[in-house]
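Subject: complex prediction, re-run

Hi both,

The earlier run crashed halfway through, so I resubmitted it with identical inputs.
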Amino acid sequence: MNNNKPKEIKSNLEYLRKLFIMPDSPDKFIEFGHDLLEMIHEFFQEKGGIHSAITLPELSDIFDQTAVPARPKLIKDVLSEIKDKIVRHSVKVGSPYYIGHMTSAIPYFMILMEMIIAALNQNQVKIESAKASSFVEREIVAWLHRLIFNKGDKYYEKNIQNHRVALGNVTSDGTLANLTALLVAREKAFAPDGDFPGLRMAGMERALRHYGYSKAVILVSKRGHYSITKSANLLGLGEENVISIAVDNDNRMDLMKLRNKIKDLQKKDGKRKIKIVSIIGIAGTTETGSVDNLLEMADIAHEAGAHFHVDACWGGSAMLVDEYRHLFTGIEQADSVTIDAHKLLYCPMSMGAVLFQDERDLRYIRHSSQYVIRRNSVDTGRFTIEGSRPFSCLKPWASLKIIGKEGFGLLFKQAQRSTDDLKMILDNCGNFETLNNPQLFILIYRFIPGAAKNQLEIWKKDKSKDSERKIRKVNNLINGLNIKLHKALRRDDTSFVSRTTMESTPYRPQKIVVLRAVLINPLTNRPILEEIVSTQNRIGMKIWKEFKPVFYRISDCNIQDPDIMGAAPYPV
Amino acid sequence: MNNNKPKEIKSNLEYLRKLFIMPDSPDKFIEFGHDLLEMIHEFFQEKGGIHSAITLPELSDIFDQTAVPARPKLIKDVLSEIKDKIVRHSVKVGSPYYIGHMTSAIPYFMILMEMIIAALNQNQVKIESAKASSFVEREIVAWLHRLIFNKGDKYYEKNIQNHRVALGNVTSDGTLANLTALLVAREKAFAPDGDFPGLRMAGMERALRHYGYSKAVILVSKRGHYSITKSANLLGLGEENVISIAVDNDNRMDLMKLRNKIKDLQKKDGKRKIKIVSIIGIAGTTETGSVDNLLEMADIAHEAGAHFHVDACWGGSAMLVDEYRHLFTGIEQADSVTIDAHKLLYCPMSMGAVLFQDERDLRYIRHSSQYVIRRNSVDTGRFTIEGSRPFSCLKPWASLKIIGKEGFGLLFKQAQRSTDDLKMILDNCGNFETLNNPQLFILIYRFIPGAAKNQLEIWKKDKSKDSERKIRKVNNLINGLNIKLHKALRRDDTSFVSRTTMESTPYRPQKIVVLRAVLINPLTNRPILEEIVSTQNRIGMKIWKEFKPVFYRISDCNIQDPDIMGAAPYPV
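This time it finished cleanly. Structure:
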């Protein structure tokens, strides 16, 4: 025992121990909690300053402590540090003016759920550290499974709490959910066979050799989420072996192109064949919200002997509401489907889920260890990629109860109304061009002043080589304009839309810079949308002044003018 | 517009909208929060019933709703459902009597942090949805990096907020952290080279072919966490290619065996060589808390041209305290290190981190997409396996400030004291055998009544073949006894230790069933430990009655008795 200041050490340990017990009179704690909520409430109520005016270099100076603090601080001091340094400079993702990403407002009861999750601190990996919560997880997994595959009462009564199988996994996010689906698909494609113990044991190289394949590929449309290439990297398939299929005018996979590509792949590559591990349908693309033709894709995939995976991370929750179900026809024939709770289930960051039509599929990746998740245990961790996991599923479990199918119906109706409103406001303005028929609350468009827009229309009708060349030049110019506008909007910071580049607009194959709005915040309304468009129009017209002279030179000249070609200094 | 009951629909939407706004007078919310915390507080204060008495089939009956609820419920009704069905039947992982897993009590201010994280709902993937929080993340990543690699002020001043590089990633847990490290290691081993675009683009098979290897392996001790084999599966290396190196008597990798294995691997396998992708050191094994000889391993790994990874998910945080640093000597020579916040940083489930010595290493897996994490952006998501991620790092960031290095010093001293106390109590009892010299708060032991223990000692000295055989038989018997005891303890449920099976006890290579205690809850004290041991002894002695006759038959007989061989009906 150390004799230096034992009194002080002892009293400090007592202080620390007290931190681990909810105070017997929790007034102080409640007071903190109250202040915190007030503070965050006020922060979100402030108008404007979506991203806070502070610059990134200024933030770098605030968070510049390069070593762990030595001396302890009081909780209240750290809380006010959080208030001054962090809350003030956070992004108001819950603001009705923040319509640029899938991150949105959440119902306030979610904060209560997070309190419960943290206070219980269950670890979902294992029944010994997660009892009721393991059953809650199986219950919500069954709900989601049924929503997609709808196999009937008997099936769910049998499997909902059957620990020998897993209808799916709760994951940390959609990327992990897609990765899980593709891991299973890969193992099914290279399953144990005679002496060959399966890819999972033997590795990619021996698997290809055993089955006589030259390589293994995944097919997804050009709208595929980047988690698919990430998965191909992780799984040792190689990003090159994600084959991107062009989309039609509605941003759905072009099935003719898919069929041709499959025929192509089925020809032998030298001496060996190519294995199609998975064909992936998208139910709500990240950029445009579009849903692939899942029904036909299911047939094509199964005919090609591929695992049919549907990435419904964005749109899947819309199946809760009858009037959206038709979009998803065929999804019940998927082998696996992924869905995110932090998107259209309005949960806080982050929770994904992957569901398998065949409840035995997750056995392909089942694992065990001596000290946790023993072979014959009931532990959820046998089937998951992640190890330790929080009780995140409480959030959608509660929100599905509190909001209910009916409530989600109303929320989605409101989201649809906002989407329609925004499209109408933009179309009526005259200085914008909307570029998709939004299916699931995502609208892409660009700023293009009336004069330029009309000129493009004229050239489009004309169809001469010269007009085509001019259209390309003007589009390059408008691309630059929209990049500049987006940057100016970020500086203005009273609202937020995102920006991307698309090859599948009416100007295809030219890449077009577009603004992107995701309209799911139920607090967003028509006046707010009008305000946002008016700001974009005002700032856009101001920037247009610099671009206008170049536009008129393009419009007037017939020959290729090197100066004009150089007039789009914004690489896209 | 639908004319059916528009009033009702409108009012419902209004109700839903209100859910998304913190109530202007948040009394109701505060009241809920208060009740919740009281409820969870009471739950944890209850003595006994660690896992609740409810059986798994009974829980199956509670959570048996096979479809999403149609009608919404009131928040207060769902909260009381949570109270009755979930909280009551959760595992009291925060109880000082729960000493079986790494999941433990957390300081109550963590609940405040979770409230902030949920209310802000930042998405760490991208600066557009996470502003200050991206900088907080880089700051704590720098703290952890410095704790391990300690590169000096200039290095951290330069890199802490340098968005062109990443010192490491925050991940959802230790498994994802280890996976990230091994993904980087794999890519470094098969980096782009001339026409070859790197494994990530080309896949495993082409990578091996290009570099002329027959396979790629990972070396880790028999104490390696199961996330390593999981990673080998995911990465397409194959679980078979995780080579398990035996440990010494202190559960540290046997370096002689490692050297021999490397020599073996460096011989050509037919025409082609074998690539050692990574050699993994463990700094705090899951089963015994042991730390490998990292200094020597670093040399061996680098000489073998392998990425040296250290899995410090369990122990890494102990480096915060000077008196533990010597255990980790050599860790600063690792290429990557993983560490978990939900273990010795006392954060709620779950957050891991991976740190790379070379701040450029994460570039091997950098990715981008058009609509998020553009190539030249400052977005954290460029480097991570996960996509959407919560602002989890606020929790360790705050706890390192509130508890501070000093506070962690006291917490670990208390954990050490509990570990020493438990060892002493067990050794003094006479009916237990402790089986490791605990380094980081994990003790393994078994119940073995004095008579059997003494007899084993006598046989051990004797060293005859016959005695060896008898030792094996008695150990089989005691294995069965400890499995039965562990099950009985689970039924008693006044305390909790875990159970595993080890090949590296003094009885090696025989596999021995052991009980495992993890002693990090600062509320656990000596009287509690005495109570736990006394319960184990009482129940153990009761079970021993069934086993005793067999033990005496083994002790008295010299010949191999088939009945006795059959006396260990508990396969291990």
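Chain A has 20 helices and eleven strands.

- K.
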